[in-house]
Specification:
With about 300 residues, the chain is mainly β. Helix content is about 5%, strand content about 40%. It contains 2 helices and 22 strands.
Length: about 300
């Protein structure tokens, strides 16, 4: 089952548009994880551009999220996956030395709290054994969107979530044959459109992290008035822990990145609109292409 989660979820909106209201579900953003519900294992490699993102923690272990290649040298994920890394552990929330303080006195996570680098892993499943897969990794430098900002109150409730996007500029490109990049959609999503969610999060059927790429279908339920985010739900696939940063596709084109999740029962999952931030994304892709060797073929 496919469920994308980031430790918080949007309140149920009226169909059409919504005002962004949040609840933390007891888990602050630095512990956000996602997982897809009502999903299936991608053994046919339909979504090879969807990648694992791993960020090392300072006292061992790592934080795992999902992401998507938008260029052989560039992965896109949620900024909260690679920023605000806690020193003690993912979910303790006790050591906030890597976080700042907002003007209102709440905890602030922005681009200044991001890790310097992260690892991106592609996964290719072997058809002879549907549970076997090849993993290939690349490291890269993290760059969050300049407007990225998450503000928490003293109880860990998310008060502000803006531009939850970050890219990982890879030191070495992936082969386009093993992991062809996803193409950006040329228009934003519309109400009631069908979308596909993809991620590496927890498997709700085994009640644990599987590390397997899963995909599921849902429908666009609401659009934020200014167009920065949208919701999918109520019935269908959702994101859970580890799916954060994972892509949302419409007709094979990238339209969103998972920014929130919650524990079941899930009403809605929220995605940052890639179309709204397309100018920034296109600029990052252009920068990545400048680094390609002359012998590397370009993405149209």
């Amino acid at each position: 089952m496919l469920l994308v989660s980031a430790g918080c979820s949007a309140q149920a909106p009226a169909l059409g548009t919504y005002r962004r209201e949040w609840r933390a579900d007891g888990v602050p953003p630095q512990g956000m994880h996602l997982v897809l519900t009502e999903s299936e294992l991608d053994v046919e490699n339909r979504y090879p551009s969807t990648v694992l993102v791993r960020v090392p923690l300072e006292r061992g272990g790592s934080r795992t999220c999902s992401g998507v290649l938008i260029d052989p040298r560039l992965a896109l994920t949620a900024a909260h996956c690679v920023c605000g890394i806690p020193r003690v552990g993912q979910r303790t929330g006790q050591d906030k030395t890597r976080l700042g303080t907002s003007a209102s006195g709440g905890t602030l996570m922005d681009s200044s709290t991001c890790t310097a680098s992260a690892t991106v892993m592609t996964v290719v499943y072997k058809q002879a054994s549907k549970t076997d897969s090849d993993h290939r990794g690349r490291t890269g430098k993290v760059r969050a969107h300049r407007d990225f900002r998450i503000v928490l109150d003293e109880q860990g409730q998310v008060l502000v979530n803006e531009a939850d996007l970050a890219v990982i500029a890879l030191d070495e490109p992936f082969s386009e044959q093993e992991a062809p990049p996803a193409a950006l959609a040329d228009r934003a999503v519309s109400l009631r459109e069908q979308v596909i969610l993809v991620g590496f999060g927890n498997d709700s059927r085994t009640n644990g992290y599987s590390g397997e790429r899963r995909s599921g279908q849902n429908t666009v339920a609401a659009l934020e008035t200014v167009g920065k985010t949208f919701l999918v739900g109520q019935k269908g696939s959702h994101t859970l822990g580890g799916d954060s940063g994972g892509p949302c596709f419409r007709d094979g084109m990238l339209v969103g990145i998972a920014t929130t999740s919650s524990t079941p029962p899930v009403e809605f999952s929220e995605f940052t609109s890639t179309h709204f931030y397309r100018d920034w994304l296109k600029a990052e892709i252009a920068n990545a292409r400048k680094l390609r060797p002359a012998t590397t073929s370009g993405v149209p």
